[in-house]
Design goal:
Layout (H helix, E strand, L loop, with lengths): L1 H6 L16 H7 L9 H21 L6 E3 L9 H5 L12 H4 L25 E2 L18 H18 L7 H7 L17 H11 L30 E2 L2 E4 L5 H10 L3 E5 L7 E6 L6 E2 L3 E11 L3 E7 L11 E5 L6 E4 L15 E4 L9 E4 L2 E4 L2 E2 L5
Parallel strand pairs: 6-10, 7-11
Antiparallel strand pairs: 1-6, 2-8, 3-14, 4-13, 5-8, 8-9, 9-10, 11-12, 14-15
Amino acid sequence: MRAAFFAAGIVPVAAFIPDATYDFRAYIQEFDRSYKVGSQDYDLRKAIFDSHLRSIVLHNSNSSKTWKRGVNEYTDMSQTEFEASGRLGYVKGMSAQYAASFPERDRVSAASADAETLEGLPSSVDWRSKGVISDVKDQGHCGSCWAFATTETIESYAAIESGTLLTLSPQQLAGCAPNPLDCGGVGGCQGSIPEVAFDYVQLYGMTTEWMLPYTAYHGDTGTCGFNRTTTPSSVKITGYTKLPSNDYAAVMKHLATVGPLAINVDASSWHDYEGGIYDGCNHTNSDIDHVVQLVGYGSDQKGGDYWLVRNSWDATWGEKGYIRLKRSAKPACAVDSSPLDGTGCKGGAPTQTVCGTCGVLWDPSYPLGAAVTVHGHHTSIVV
């Protein structure tokens, strides 16, 4: 049943904010569902949908809320089904290999920032306006968010360096990057982390989406389709680095002066986000489960300060594929108490403290030495 249910939502349909007159029949037609009236499946999906719809309408009627919720392809899924749908990845802690670059004290509590610390930074930053952010992608029902966020961030840094924005292949990372320490999962559609992907790209480079298209949409990672002899790399990096964990000022300065970041977040409550400044994550207990790209920050007249985050659930989700998360110079912190529940890194800590809305400040990383290459030779083509 689950496989058939997911298949019904293969083609993304634009989400929208419903009114009180919208019902399950309209939803079935809008999202091309094939539930048979009177069947057990129909009754189950209707009950889930009706419950979600009531909650959405009630939320949107509250003028104090800074974000809107909407109806989309996930509205007839239970929370458990959404979390198992492959839309999330599993980024559940870090092994000693990847955590060693920063001492434990830097990972415990948030570093806030006063006006003096951030003096001279622009009031808003959006790397999309600089022509270094590719179109929003869709990972499908594969837990390959880690591959998408890494790919997108390498694309951006190669474009910043060369002036050439290429669309690279997340399939190469999903299908080829090994994860021997089981960091954030076991690799492929079963989850991993950007650090693992950066290590792979440093060794092998990345080819384009045109050369190696994405085939893991339905949850089957497949075999590695990259061969350095027959599939030349288009971008190389010399390594990667990580910002100090939970450091607000470090993230602000990096976005303003260097570039975007790959970040790990708790996206378990994002499924019906439609727009606005989101502040719906649990502020006490968190569960880091998704990797996305942080591309800027700004301020909204109603919702206040925000982080601008690019997701990989297609441009039909959220604000054309993006979400704005509440930003505070004195970020609150939550505890992720399940980093080792079968998907974390071997030898990782039993808990971790993550700060910022949905843990946005927890684990920012980016590539070093990104460069566009042609058949192995560096080039700098300005477009």
